[in-house]
Design brief:
The structure holds 2 protein chains of 2 kinds. By secondary structure, chain A is of the alpha+beta class. Helices cover 52% and strands 20% of the residues of chain A. In chain A, the strands form 3 sheets. Chain A has a 6-stranded mixed β-barrel. In chain A, strands 2-12 form a two-stranded antiparallel ribbon. Chain A has a two-stranded antiparallel sheet with strand order 5-6. In chain A, helix 1 crosses helix 10, helix 2 runs antiparallel to helix 11 and helix 9 runs parallel beside helix 11. Chain A is elongated and about 110 Å long. The model of chain A has no long low-confidence stretch (mean pLDDT 87). In chain B, 50% of the residues are buried. In chain B, strand 4 and strand 5 form a beta hairpin. Chain B has one domain: P-loop containing nucleotide triphosphate hydrolases (Rossmann fold, 3-Layer(aba) Sandwich). The mean pLDDT of chain B is 93. Chain B is α/β, with parallel strands linked by helices. The chains are: A alpha+beta, B alpha/beta. Chains A and B meet through helix 1, helix 9 and helix 10 of A and helix 2 and helix 3 of B. The structure holds adenosine-5'-diphosphate (ADP) and magnesium ion (MG). Adenosine-5'-diphosphate binds next to strand 2 and helix 1 of chain B.
């Protein structure tokens, strides 16, 4: 019977029902979209932010300058405990050189590095490491070096030497000379624009430092620092240390990498790491706040449309009361109606929200999104919450209707 | 000696300053058909609503079917209405989006469990066996009032209240409705209280009371 009442009541007032349905569906859609991308966003934002710089710097631990790290240790970075959190790394070897091109001469920094180096580590998936991976914001006019005698030159230096892609720069260090073909001019917005970048091996032989590197920049996914993460590991108990080691703080990942690079000291690059954590936290709270606001708005819309239809329905409610319906029976009809609408609204809202999340993810992050399993129940529960919150005031009004006043002849 | 189904003493109902019902003492024996007459605004509906548990008195005592209505909660009054009373209004108050048979089943639903066969036979009893699936808008005034009668009697009430049930009907429909009520009462033996403006309709009862400005001024017993 309840079903018959509800069915006929729906058919009688399609507009009012549709309005409530729409409010609930929109609320559920926004909740689905926001919550769906919130998790994904944290992950993707972390990746995006990561690409704006490495967050761990490895340097020789020798306090007196002039120390080096060993290139042969680099593959071990792919085998550490936190290897899956390490998204990329690149070695550098710096030296001062004399550049000359077309009659112009200048002293400057020559930097040997990996651009996009295929790395095979036994027992691990092959990967590509180098500047291209950890500094994707570098803009190269021309192309990246491929051969040993190819190089890219910073935009500022290129301007002073008056070289363009296709030109040559002669690089001299302590009498040793290397002819380098310029294949690209790089703009980074930073100090890199003053340097010349050539393959690591080339610079090693130019500087007579075979197998040596002066620093490694590592890019790792880390969790935001909290009070525990800031503690000095040296003062920790064994259990605390274990917990610290097994949490992806930038410090514990740094420690991890330091262990495999002989003679190295790892320094987290703090500003970036902590700014990231704070930004992500803020972003997530903003998303949550927006979700709550959207749900509040649709509950208000539900409440308003139910209130509006209450005026029209008061004779019907008064009549039901007159023939003996108690408060529970009246509530059952009302709550039943809104719950049915909210299931439908929740399903449609979920489907819409999932699409919306996909569109947002594709436009903002250029990648599709995989909606987590919990999203569907979350959408339905949001719809229920909206329906129930939106029903409170109208239901109160319905229960206060006095049949004698309404049915007066 | 027949026991009283309704007993009031000093029953009063005020609406702010307006005294719609001055203290009224009334006893209605079980099985009686009581007609209530009076000018518009004399308090007839007020009295009906109090007796039917739709409204609460301002003062006095009110016992219906052994139940002290003043002691009942809101839900208690609702239970009293569905179990004890059948009400027919002047404007045939039916749920517009439900069919005739569903309107009758609605009363069953609030009372206990809907039983479509029983609801159908109630409509057949009031001569609407051919109008079961029609909605109120598709029925004439007399037909709608008969649906209300079927709904009022479906839960076998002890007390049937009619607030000018024939007020909107033409003579032919009025006679038809009254005949029907008389027949049903003969079978079901419920007590009837019927508010009317029509002397002829009042004459169907055993006794008529007259209200004037909230006061019971006169009563008249019909010769049988
Ligand atoms: N809800 C109400 N609020 C204020 N006054 C009311 C209300 N209901 C009835 N009255 C007043 O009480 C008096 C009796 O009304 P009522 O019982 O409806 O009269 P009748 O049914 O005899 O025409 C009238 O003066 C009417 O205006
Ligand atoms: Mg009246």
């Amino acid at each position: 019977m309840l079903f018959r009442i509800l069915k006929n009541s729906f058919l009688k007032r399609p507009k009012a029902v549709f309005l409530v349905f729409l409010s609930i569906a929109m609320g559920a859609a926004v909740a689905t979209a926001f919550l769906g991308i919130a998790g994904e966003v944290s992950h993707k934002m972390a990746l995006e932010l990561r690409s704006y710089g490495a967050n761990i710097l490895l340097e020789p631990s020798a306090v007196e300058g002039g120390g080096f790290l060993r290139e042969e240790d680099l593959p071990k970075i792919k085998t550490v405990f936190w290897k899956y959190n390490i998204t990329g790394f690149t070695p550098y070897l710096f030296g001062i050189a004399e550049f000359s091109a077309g009659g112009k001469k200048e002293r400057g920094v020559v930097s040997g590095t990996w651009f996009a180096r295929q790395l095979e580590v036994p027992g691990e998936d092959p990967s590509v490491q180098g500047i291209k991976g950890i500094a994707p914001w570098w803009e190269v006019e021309g192309r990246w070096p491929e051969a040993a005698d190819e190089s890219i030159v910073g935009a500022a230096l290129a301007k002073r030497l008056n070289v363009v892609p296709g030109g040559d720069v002669t690089t001299t260090v302590r009498g040793r000379t290397q002819q380098l073909r310029i294949v690209g001019v790089v703009t980074t917005g930073g100090y890199e624009e003053e340097q010349l970048f050539a393959p690591l091996v080339t610079v090693q032989s130019l500087l007579q430092q075979q197998g040596k590197i002066s620093r490694v920049l590592v890019s790792a996914l880390t969790v935001p620092m909290d009070d525990f993460g800031k503690k000095d590991p040296a003062t920790m108990s064994k259990d605390e240390y274990e917990k610290w080691y097994c949490t992806a703080y930038v410090t514990s990942v740094a420690k991890n990498v330091e262990e495999v690079m002989a003679g190295s000291r790892a320094k987290p690059i703090w500003q970036i790491a902590s700014a990231e954590g704070a930004l992500l936290k803020k972003l997530n709270s903003v998303m949550l706040l927006l979700t709550v606001l959207a749900l509040g708005a649709s509950a208000t819309a539900v409440s308003t449309s139910l209130m509006a239809s209450m005026a029209e329905r008061s004779p019907e409610i008064a009549l039901m009361k007159a023939v003996g319906a108690d408060r529970l029976q009246i509530s059952a009809i009302f709550v039943g109606e809104t719950l049915i609408i909210s299931v439908a609204g929740g399903i449609v809202g979920y489907l819409l929200g999932d699409q919306l999340a996909g569109i947002i993810s594709r436009t903002v992050f250029n990648s599709p999104i995989s909606s987590p399993l919990w999203l569907f129940p979350t959408a339905i529960i949001s719809a229920f919450a909206v329906a129930i919150a939106g029903s409170v005031a109208p239901l109160r009004r319905a229960l206060l209707i006095e049949p004698v006043r309404v049915l007066k002849g | 000696m027949v026991s009283a189904i309704i007993e009031t003493s000093g029953l009063t109902r005020n609406y702010g300053d307006i005294c719609a019902l001055k203290p009224i003492d009334l006893i209605v024996p079980e099985g009686e058909w009581l007609s209530v007459m009076g000018h518009s605004g004399s308090g007839k509906s007020t009295l009906m609503n109090l007796v039917g548990g739709l409204d609460r008195p301002s003062n006095g005592s009110l016992r219906v079917g052994g139940e002290d209505l003043l002691a009942l909660s809101e839900d208690g009054l609702a239970r009293f209405r569905r179990e004890f009373v059948g009400i027919i209004f002047q404007q045939h108050h039916l749920v517009p989006y439900l069919t005739a048979v569903e309107n009758v089943m609605l009363a069953q639903y609030f009372h206990s469990v809907p039983d479509e066969a029983e609801a159908r036979s109630a409509l057949e009893r009031v001569g609407l066996g051919h109008r079961l699936k029609n909605r109120p808008g598709e029925l004439s005034g007399g037909e709608q009032q008969r649906v209300c009668i079927a709904r009022a009697i479906i839960n076998s009430p002890k007390l049937l209240l009619g607030d000018e049930p024939t007020g909107n009907l033409d003579h032919k429909s009025t006679v038809m409705v009254m005949e029907l009520l008389k027949e049903l009462r003969a079978e079901e033996r419920f007590t009837v209280i019927m508010v009317t403006h029509n002397q002829e309709v009042a004459a169907w009862g055993d006794r008529t009371i007259y209200l004037d400005d909230g006061v019971l001024v006169r009563e008249e017993r019909m010769k049988s």
